[in-house]
Amino acid sequence: MKATIRTRVLEAALDLFYEKGYNRVSVDEIVERAGTSKGGFYHNFKSKDALLYEIHNVFISYVLAQTKKARASSSSPVEQLSAMLYAFTNVFDVYMRHITVFYNEVAYLPAEFEAPIHEKRTQYRRMIEDVIEAGKAEGQFRLDLSTTITTMAIIGMVNWTYKWYRHDGELTMTQITKHFNDVILRGIVTEQGLAIAEQHRMQQR
C-alpha cells in the first residue's frame, strides 16, 4: 500500500531533521525528499513548526494510549506501575527517531505549541501520580515519599533513555525495563508491596 503524502512528508522530515538538525532543513528539502509538492506539504501541515509538533504528538499519543491499557490490565498499584513502565519504555523501540528529533530540536518550537504539549504530558504525569497515590492508600507504596518527586524521578529517568539506548545494544528494551522496574519499585514499595511485586514476577516466569 502506497504511503499517504502526510506520512511521506513526516518520514522525510524525520530523516532530514535527524541528519541535519531542524534549523538547517527547509520546506523545499522536505518536499523534495518526500516526492511531493509544496501544495501537498501545506495541505497537511500549516508550517515546518507544525510538523515538529506533530512528531511529538505521534509518540506522546502512543505513550498515553498504551499506558492507559497497561493501567487497566490490573487492579494492583504495584502491578499497574510495572506495566505502565513497560508501556512507557516500549516507545523507544517504536518511535526512537521521533523522540530523538523532538528533544534535540524542541528549542525551536514556537510558544503556540506549548499548551497542547503540556496538556498531554500532564495527562501522563497524573496517571502515574494517581497510581502512586492509590498504592500509598493500599499500603503498597511508602507514605514518606513525595508522590510528585517520585513521579518526576520516574519520568526523568526513562525520558533520558533516548540519549544512550541503541536497538543493537547489549540489552533489549525489555531487559532495560526490568532494571528500571527493580530500581523504582524497590525504592518506593513497602514490605507488602514488595511481596505483591515478587508474586507478580513469579507468575510472569
UniProtKB/TrEMBL annotation:
Pfam families: TetR_C_24 (PF17932), TetR_N (PF00440). Residues 26-45 bind DNA. The keyword Thylakoid does not apply. InterPro entries: Homeodomain-like_sf, HTH-type_TetR-like_transc_reg, HTH_TetR, KstR2_TetR_C, Tet_transcr_reg_TetR-rel_C_sf. The keyword Cell division does not apply. GO terms for molecular function: DNA-binding transcription factor activity; transcription cis-regulatory region binding. It comes from the Bacteria. SUPFAM superfamilies: Homeodomain-like (SSF46689), Tetracyclin repressor-like, C-terminal domain (SSF48498). Keywords: DNA-binding, Repressor, Transcription, Transcription regulation. Residues 3-63 form the HTH tetR-type domain. PANTHER family: HTH-TYPE TRANSCRIPTIONAL REGULATOR RUTR (PTHR30055), HTH-TYPE TRANSCRIPTIONAL REPRESSOR KSTR2 (PTHR30055:SF175). This is TetR family transcriptional regulator.
